[in-house]
Write a sequence for this structure.
């Protein structure tokens, strides 16, 4: 059996209940054992007695009297007398028991009274929710009009009830009850589904000047029939918690967004982009001018007269502030102002009310811009890292109503710390980068050497400090070597490796080795250098990999018009014929220098006079493959007719590079020339001592025809010594060739591959003075190998009175 009215007065107590049955006249017809234990009266004593006989009187205020014919009710308190006469506080419930015939009877349930009655709890809960709870409670009717509210909630504290009760909630708190919040409450009314923890910012009626953030929950109120009566909302002020979370998110965002590159300007701009709109309406970043150059002042405070460069400025669209100094403009700070003060003690400054500051008179330019932008609060934070001042960051508020507080100053300090570290890293990189570029430029040729084999020009665009290089190397026999290479990586190590390789390849080229042999020796050198550097890098946290490099080497002979090409992992040189046909040199691509692989192979072809040879690094074609769009565009530009090589070089740069690139770009162009028959004389002789005199005579006649009779005596001596040695040590025929170039070149070719060397004979020796004499009579001399032997060559300086040689190639060096 259930008790009627239990839902009206609270839950039935958990203790065992005493059950008593009453007749229609309220006399006891049944007395349960529980009733006997509770009051002590036995059932035979109570049978036929009215229950009201046990009621303690006269205290009607403390409990309700048991009626003679009680109605259906429950949850009331009464004091009944037990068997010993003592009063017992009880709670009682009763309900009618319908009978099929006759009058109804009643069931009464008794239980020991609790310390606090349920109704008191209900009233206390309701009073606390409406008057004392820090959680805002608002009761709205079906039209969303405010019917009840918690006067102790932060959003409504101090708001008089008579002024707002009965008004629409949207009218009471328009910035809190937005369209979205109103729509959610109507959905709760219609569906009955509650809304939990909806975050809504706004300006509550109790504090209309400061924005608060509330966590709103809403649920529907219904009558006993289940019909909606309205909506109850619970609002918790989570402003501080929300701000704390926003600050954590801001700092986490700053740690990933600020200092992403080693670019000083970009780092300053990242601070402004991160802080504007979240901390301030505008942010300015000024960096010391010396820091932009990679330098750093002494640790500690700096004087106010130091020159700063405005590196970044950003403002919200709503604020629209104009900076006192444009980005890139240099200036000094006026003394005394918050800027100079924070640099004097390296402590940030918080100015809550800008318009009241007397310092504005000392800096009228900034003061004017702040007044025009209605700046009402500002912060100035020094940018320091590792004890060194790098600059100053300024934070400004104009549209935002609230001034900066100490929490904002803490956030600004954290942002400044991230930025200062990034700026210092960028400064150090700038210093190292500048030093590497200076070293790199000092290791590259500033101008191309004079020679007559080709008309050459180069384009060099340094990006990051790295290892590209180019070279034009005059060789014996009026030949010229063209070299372009690139060391992997960047920084000092790459630059130093480049300098070593360039020096090595010039030395190897001076030995008159073939291009494929030069690359083979160069590859061995790279492997040795990597092995030497490996122990030093064992504890390097960067774990720099061994050095590798690519290289393309081409040797052109203006007498035979032959071009020999070899390459090590480098793009193939492009050959442009005078008719505009462009094709890559079909030289096999060997492995990069420093990588084990198959041997290098040389490729040879004959070029018509006026052909164009183009060697370049991958940066010129954007790193695309040799058949990619960048290489195709390069071929189209080279196929055009150009007045000179310098013009062609510039056109390629203008076309290939639409903007500044971080890659190092090298382009080396050479237009071939030919030494014609009037500049070359050649004779072939049998290996017979009698031909020595003939060779001298023919050389004398040739010099006379060239107007070089002043060199006849020394030339005859050179020809005589070299031919005599060839007859003595080499079988087969002997070839003598004279070339009139920038110097007088004399070559003797024989079939013996053994290279001669200069001896230093004693005074009693009868031989061994030939090459020593040749070395004394010439400016340079040397030996180069041929397919069937060797060639000994000499160079003699042309005398000033002699006829001028063919015009030298114009100086076309220099970076484009």
């Amino acid at each position: 059996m259930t008790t009627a009215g239990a839902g009206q007065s609270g839950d039935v107590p958990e203790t065992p209940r005493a059950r008593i049955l009453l007749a229609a006249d309220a006399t006891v017809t049944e007395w349960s054992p529980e009733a006997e234990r509770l009051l002590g009266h036995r059932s035979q004593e109570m049978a036929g007695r009215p229950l009201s006989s046990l009621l303690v009187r006269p205290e009607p205020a403390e409990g309700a009297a048991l009626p003679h014919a009680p109605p259906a009710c429950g949850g009331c308190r009464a004091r009944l007398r037990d068997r010993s006469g003592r009063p017992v506080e009880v709670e009682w419930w009763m309900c009618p028991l319908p009978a099929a015939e006759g009058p109804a009877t009643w069931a009464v349930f008794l239980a020991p009274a609790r310390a606090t009655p349920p109704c008191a709890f209900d009233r206390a809960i309701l009073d606390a929710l409406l008057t004392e709870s820090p959680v805002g409670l608002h009761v709205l009717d079906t039209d969303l009009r405010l019917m009840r509210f918690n006067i102790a909630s932060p959003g409504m504290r101090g708001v008089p009830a008579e002024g707002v009760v009965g008004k629409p909630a949207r009218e009471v708190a328009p910035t809190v009850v937005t369209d979205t919040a109103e729509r959610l409450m109507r959905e709760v009314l219609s569906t009955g589904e509650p809304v939990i923890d909806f975050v809504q910012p706004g300006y509550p009626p109790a504090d209309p000047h400061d924005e608060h953030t509330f966590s709103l929950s809403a649920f529907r109120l219904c009558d006993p029939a289940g019909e909606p009566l309205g909506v109850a909302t619970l609002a918790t002020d989570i402003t501080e918690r929300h701000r704390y979370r926003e600050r954590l998110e801001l700092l986490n965002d700053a740690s990933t967004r600020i200092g992403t590159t080693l670019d000083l300007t970009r780092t300053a701009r990242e601070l402004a982009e991160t802080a504007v709109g979240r901390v301030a309406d505008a942010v300015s970043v000024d960096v010391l001018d010396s820091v932009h150059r990679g330098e750093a002042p002494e640790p500690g405070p700096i004087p106010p007269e130091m020159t700063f460069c405005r590196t970044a400025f950003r403002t919200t669209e709503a604020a629209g502030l104009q900076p006192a100094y444009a980005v890139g403009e240099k200036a000094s700070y006026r003394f005394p102002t918050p800027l100079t003060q924070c640099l004097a003690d390296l402590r940030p400054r918080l100015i809550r009310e800008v318009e009241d500051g007397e310092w504005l008179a000392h800096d009228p330019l900034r003061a004017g811009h702040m007044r025009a932008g209605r700046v009402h609060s500002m912060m100035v934070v020094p940018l320091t890292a590792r004890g060194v001042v790098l600059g100053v960051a300024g934070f400004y508020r104009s549209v935002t109503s609230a001034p900066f507080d100490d929490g904002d100053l803490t956030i600004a300090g954290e942002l400044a710390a991230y930025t200062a570290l990034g700026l210092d890293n960028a400064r150090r990189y700038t210093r190292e980068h500048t030093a590497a570029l200076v070293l790199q430029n000092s290791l590259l040729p500033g101008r191309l050497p004079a020679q007559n084999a080709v008309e050459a020009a180069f384009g060099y665009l340094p990006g990051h400090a790295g290892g590209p290089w180019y070279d034009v190397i005059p060789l014996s026999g009026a030949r010229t070597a063209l070299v372009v290479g690139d060391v992997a990586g960047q920084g000092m190590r790459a630059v130093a490796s480049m300098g070593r390789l360039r020096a090595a390849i010039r030395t190897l080229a001076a030995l008159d080795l073939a291009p494929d042999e030069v690359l083979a020796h160069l590859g061995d050198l790279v492997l040795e250098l990597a092995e030497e550097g490996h122990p030093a890098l064992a504890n390097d946290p960067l774990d720099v990999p061994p050095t590798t490099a690519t290289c393309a080497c081409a040797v052109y002979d203006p007498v035979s018009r032959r071009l020999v090409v070899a390459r090590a992992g480098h793009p193939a040189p492009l050959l442009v014929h005078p008719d505009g046909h462009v094709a890559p040199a079909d030289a096999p691509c060997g492995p990069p220098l420093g990588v084990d692989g198959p041997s290098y192979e040389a490729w040879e072809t004959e070029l018509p006079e006026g052909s164009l040879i183009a060697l370049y690094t991958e940066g010129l074609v954007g790193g695309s493959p040799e058949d990619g769009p960048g290489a195709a565009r390069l071929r189209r530009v080279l196929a055009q007719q150009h007045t000179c090589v310098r013009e062609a070089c510039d056109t390629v740069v203008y076309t290939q590079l639409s903007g500044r690139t971080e890659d190092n770009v090298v382009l080396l162009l050479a237009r071939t020339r030919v030494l014609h028959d009037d500049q070359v004389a050649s004779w072939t002789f049998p290996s017979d001592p009698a031909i020595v005199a003939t060779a001298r005579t023919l050389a004398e006649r040739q010099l006379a025809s060239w107007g070089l009779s002043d060199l006849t005596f020394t030339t005859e001596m050179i020809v005589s010594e070299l031919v005599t040695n060839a007859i003595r040590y080499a079988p087969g025929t002997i070839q003598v060739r004279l070339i009139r170039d920038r110097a007088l070149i004399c070559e003797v070719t024989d079939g013996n591959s053994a290279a001669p060397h200069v001896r230093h004979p004693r005074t009693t020796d009868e031989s061994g003075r030939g090459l020593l004499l040749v070395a004394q009579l010439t400016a340079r001399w040397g030996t180069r190998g041929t397919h069937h032997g060797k060639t000994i060559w000499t160079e003699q300086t042309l005398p000033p009175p002699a006829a001028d040689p063919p015009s030298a190639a114009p100086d076309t060096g220099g970076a484009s």
The longest strand covers residues 87-97. The domain at 677-797 is CATH 3.30.565.10 (Heat Shock Protein 90).
